[in-house]
């Protein structure tokens, strides 16, 4: 009887064995106890990739491609927001895996050994960037805005044509500039050069900014604050980017942009991968995704920042292109200060800025 039962079970066992063999890519190897990479990825917990960024509308655009990226790489992207010196504090404390920042902080972080190399081997889309898009061995440019003079046409009857117009006495108390960030530094360096100085001889620049102080209404810390000043009619003009002026117009603000005859300054968004991150491989993949055509076109169409991937410009709408200060024809000639040097003196400049410029504006 026992033999009879075993013979009856034999076909069933053979079928089961056959099914197991056909599905070998998704089950454990009975002899070795190992599983395929595909099975391991599906069963392992998603890794968290911490991306330090700016928040607000910028992060809203960054989220557009996250679902596909997270699914493909079995990870969860978390945004960490910080500004100014807090960015490098968070990097140093291991609170993020990669950052969106500005050149000063990128170069300061490089000097401290905080960032990993970025090149076409680790991030293939680096090969598709404009030459201007590679700042150093560890820093690439994600996008660029064109800084010009934003103005309220009700208060400025003749559109500004030069950076010198910010110093016009008729706008006393009616000018806003940002705190000592990239555009303000660029303006000070430009002013220094008009008086025979430069980044390494910045005294004429500080003197010029001190003369601008009576015109300054507010030192603005963020874009929503600048928007509010224009909506309230509190200021006549400011330094601001093409993309943010377009955004402000969409919010109903009465503001236009003029690119001075001397040329626009660059608002640079840089990217770095944190060297000591346990997720460096994911950080490289994320940077590569953000430098790809689709993500770059989104940053252009949504925020009007010029994309640094050479193939992305063709995917921008005609309306977007019409509101950008930079084009493929002029991006390589865009004005950009010596950020590598400025990073080494930024702290000293910040101290002088408070004493020599901010203090006079408050009187």
UniProtKB/TrEMBL annotation:
Gene Ontology molecular function terms on file: thiamine binding; thiamine pyrophosphate binding
Signal peptide stretch: 1-21
GO CC terms: outer membrane-bounded periplasmic space
One GO BP annotation of this record: thiamine transport
Keywords, comma-separated and alphabetical: Signal
Pfam families: SBP_bac_6 (PF13343)
Gene3D superfamilies xref list: Periplasmic binding protein-like II
CDD domains (UniProt xref): PBP2_polyamine_RpCGA009
Entry protein name: ABC transporter substrate-binding protein
Biological source species: Formimonas warabiya
């Amino acid at each position: 009887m026992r033999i009879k039962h075993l013979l009856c079970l034999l076909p069933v066992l053979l079928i089961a064995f056959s099914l197991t063999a056909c599905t070998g890519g998704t089950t454990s190897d009975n002899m070795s106890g190992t599983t395929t990479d595909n099975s391991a990825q599906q069963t392992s917990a998603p890794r968290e990739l911490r991306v330090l960024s700016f928040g607000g509308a910028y992060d809203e655009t960054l989220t557009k491609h996250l679902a596909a990226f997270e699914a493909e790489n079995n990870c969860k992207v978390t945004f960490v927001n910080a500004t100014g010196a807090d960015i490098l504090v968070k990097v140093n404390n291991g609170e993020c895996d990669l950052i969106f920042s500005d050149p000063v902080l990128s170069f300061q972080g490089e000097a401290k050994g905080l960032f990993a190399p970025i090149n076409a081997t680790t991030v293939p889309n680096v090969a598709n960037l404009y030459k201007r898009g590679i700042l150093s061995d560890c820093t690439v440019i994600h996008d660029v805005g064109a800084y010009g003079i934003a103005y309220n046409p009700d208060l400025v009857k003749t559109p500004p044509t030069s950076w010198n117009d910010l110093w016009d006495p008729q706008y006393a108390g009616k000018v806003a500039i940002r705190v000592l960030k990239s555009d303000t530094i660029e303006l000070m360096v430009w002013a220094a050069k008009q008086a025979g100085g430069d980044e390494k001889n910045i005294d004429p620049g500080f003197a010029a900014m001190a003369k601008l102080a009576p015109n300054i209404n507010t030192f603005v810390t963020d874009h929503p604050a600048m928007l509010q000043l224009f909506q309230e009619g509190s200021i006549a003009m400011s330094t601001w980017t093409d993309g943010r002026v377009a955004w402000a117009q969409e919010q109903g603000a009465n503001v236009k942009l003029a690119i001075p005859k001397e040329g626009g300054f660059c608002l640079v968004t840089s990217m770095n991968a944190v060297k000591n991150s346990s997720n460096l491989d994911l950080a490289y993949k994320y940077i590569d995704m953000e430098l790809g055509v689709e993500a770059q076109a989104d940053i252009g169409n949504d925020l009007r920042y010029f994309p640094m991937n050479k193939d992305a410009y063709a995917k921008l709408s005609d309306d977007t292109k019409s509101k950008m200060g930079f084009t493929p024809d002029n991006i390589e000639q865009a004005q950009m200060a010596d950020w590598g040097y400025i990073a080494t003196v930024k702290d000293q400049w910040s101290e002088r800025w408070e004493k020599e410029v901010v203090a006079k504006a408050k009187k």
